[in-house]
Amino acid sequence: MRTSVALSLLGAAATGVAAQKALPTAAAVTNNPSCLIAEAVLPENAWQKNGFPNGGNIKGKVVAKSGDGGVGVQFNVEVSGLPEGGPFTYHIHAKPVPENGNCTATGAHFDPTERGEDPACDKSKPETCQIGDLAGKHGAIPAGNTTFSASYVDKYASLVEGSDAYFLDRSIVFHFPNKTRITCANFKITEPACGASTTGVAAPTGSTTGGAPSPSGTLPVAAGASLSASSMTGVAAALLGGAMMLML
Predict the structure, then answer these.
(1) Per the database record, which ranges form the Superoxide dismutase copper/zinc binding domain (predicted)?
(2) pLDDT per residue over 95-116, tens digit each?
């Protein structure tokens, strides 16, 4: 009997350990383009009116640009006019805000590693958190604040279009403590990446239309002289032939 109970307990313990599977980890991004800047500017009116019974909204924006050397993304968060209460969280969400401003339509947190929201993000291990969980990794807006600013680098976000961690076609969403969505905005590129050519590719120095380029960009003198002498010899021969015909 005791053996059976012990085996049952061991089985339950093993099941619990198996259930606590290792969280997926995000890879650090090291190739973000320099110069590119994007920002998400909050709209004039909040989506959730409870915090703003007389109208209005949180004011401010979230700016994103490459971290030093292309490593991660530097986020600059500047907001004011926060409602009473808190703490407030904010995240990158999986979908953009539609034209009607419906923050609910932005879907869940941006989570390309499919980590999920549970367990809660451990900021000492940011690589195991959802990529979109900015507040979880870098801190929520403290309760009682009417203004908030923060600047930090998130190593796991990407500005490279087509990559799994790319977020500039998505949105930022601010939440009440009960996870109700207060307001949201789409990211928009305001400064393009450096190095993009807008005038096409310049022709190599010294190239000529319809022929191979010479080192100096002009026809070689020797080749030009040879062509001229050949032409003159042909003309002289024709004139001499005509003169001899007249003399006969």
Answers:
(1) 59-175
(2) 999 999 999 999 999 999 999 9
Q: Which residue has the tokens 């900021």?
A: 123
Count of CB atoms situated within 10 Å of the CB of 102: 12
134: nearest Cα among 172, 182, 87, 81: 172
Tell the CATH superfamily of the 35-189 domain.
Superoxide dismutase, copper/zinc binding domain (2.60.40.200)
Residue ranges per domain, the chain?
35-189
Query: CA geometry: angle at 109 spanning 51 and 171, to 5°?
Result: 70
pLDDT single digits (tens) 37-77: 999 999 999 999 988 999 999 999 999 999 999 999 999 99
Question: ∠ CA(113), CA(119), CA(120), 5° rounding?
Answer: 95
